[in-house]
Amino acid sequence: MYNDPWIKIYAIIFISGLAATLILTPVFRRIARTTGFMDVPAANHKGHKKSTPLLGGIAMFCAWILCIVAGFFTVKYDLIPFFTCVTGEHLAGLHHVSRELFLVVGGALLAVLLGLIDDKYPMSARTKFAGQFLVALIAVFGGGVRFNIFPETPGIEIPLTIFWIMLLMNSINFFDNMDGLAVGTIAIAMGFFAVIAILNSQYFMASFTILNCAVCCGFWFYNASPATIFMGDSGSHFLGYLAAVVSAQVTFFDKSFSLSRFPVLMPLFILALPLFDTAMVVIIRTLNRKPFWIGDHNHISHRFVRMGFSRKRAVMLVHLLALTFGLGILPVFWGNFATAAILVIQAVLMLGIITFLQLSLSERPDARE
Fold first, then answer.
1. What 8-state DSSP symbol labels residue 145?
2. Is-contact 230 155, C-beta < 8 A?
3. Under a CB-based contact definition with an 8 Å cutoff, are residues 77 and 254 in contact?
4. How far apart are CA 364 and CA 369, in angstroms?
5. 151: Cβ–Cβ under 8 A, 6 or more apart, which residues?
6. pLDDT band with cut points at 50, 70 and 90 for residue 368
7. Model-level pTM?
8. Which of 83, 200, 210, 293 has an alpha carbon within 20 to 30 A of 115's alpha carbon?
9. Are 162 and 168 in contact (CB under 8 A)?
10. Torsions phi, psi for 124 (to 5 deg)
11. Nearest 5 degrees, angle CA 267-CA 268-CA 274?
12. Alpha-carbon distance 17 to 218, whole Å?
């Protein structure tokens, strides 16, 4: 495996995505300051004390699309012979899905634009959901994105995938409440999805996922505490969309191709914390008779802060938990039923511990985010 030439390609992709994001993010940070596209403390609920540039989502998208275009032309016009030697036998498959890839990219662009408009001119929840629904339709019907985990009931794939895309776009939007929290969590998730794709010999999906991971890592450098730029809704929509697309494309039930015996568990383990956090805040807001889309201080990261952690250490703890849950999926990937059952029980118990810690503080006065 270490002599696999694809490893070199993955390394080149990661370095390229990382470098592009590291270079472009300061450019868009300067543009945001020049144009006044700032997140002003008095007008938001994220807890920072000074105005912060708010074009991180555009920076990530531009770095991402630049690398995709560069990769496409590199392979198409044989700009790097080494690439052609390695990818040659797979090019027919790439050309076959080129239209779908184009529409997946189009969905990403629409997701970014939707979030960007909401950053500048806050939308109603209904309008935002309608926009997210359109993004999901493009990915599903144009990009061919499907959750193929229930082969005996194919009719459920389309509504499930649409729901999954909208769920993750909103989950990551909710989860983006502290410096570096959301982008770091998605970087970890993309790393695990890349491992799954590599084990399944999904070479181009692995390349796509590694690029996503690299862009997240590059942006994290500027978004980690103290953040000098925020991703905004444009960034959270972008990362949520990518997480949904990638998780759907590497999660399928086909024993002739996939090594996974329990495909439905893969995204649930890898994205456990954002999904769990979303479920908790929705339940708490509903019980408090508040709209679930209105921010508050009931996120897992905020509750760790209430327990005495600094915001920076609370984020670090969430990332360590994300790594812990993600590592659990690797034995499940090739393990038997007993292995999967034990790890599922362990994951549920860990979430139960977190829930207990959250509920132990539920009687304290709640503050707005």
1. -
2. no
3. no
4. 15
5. 253, 254
6. very low
7. 0.90
8. 210
9. no
10. -75, 160
11. 100
12. 8
> Do the Cβ atoms of 99 and 141 come closer than 8 Å?
no
Residue 137 and residue 85: Cα distance in Å, rounded? 36
What one-letter code names the amino acid at 105?
A: V
Buried b (16+ CB within 10 A) or exposed e, 45-65: eebbeebbbbbbbbbbbbbbb
If you ran DSSP here, which 8-state letter would residue 89 be given?
Answer: G
Sorted by sequence, the CB contacts under 8 Å of residue 302 that are 6+ apart come out as 177, 314, 369
pLDDT tens-digit map of 55-86: 999 999 999 999 999 988 777 666 666 666 66
The residue type found at 17 is G
Name the token pair of 153: 């009931």
**Residue of higher predicted confidence among 157 and 242:** 242
Determine the pLDDT at residue 321: 94
Best CA proximity match to 236, nearest among 189, 285, 170, 305: 170
**Residue 300, number of CB atoms within 10 A of its CB:** 24
Nearest one of 119, 176, 111 to 139, comparing CA atoms: 111
Cα separation of 44 and 21, whole Å? 26
Which amino acid is located at 24 in the chain? L
Measured CA to CA, the distance from residue 314 to residue 306 in angstroms comes to: 10
Q: Which amino acid is at 351?
A: L
Question: Which residues make beta-bridge pairs with 148?
Answer: 252
- Burial letters 324-359, b for 16+ CB under 10 A, else e: ebbebbbebbebeeeebeebbeebeebbeebeeebe
Amino acid (one-letter) located at 313 = R
Across the chain, what does the average pLDDT equal? Answer: 85
> What is the Cβ-side half-sphere exposure of residue 366, based on CA atoms within 13 angstroms?
16
Residue 52 φ then ψ, to 5°: -130, 135
Percent of the chain with pLDDT over 90: 51
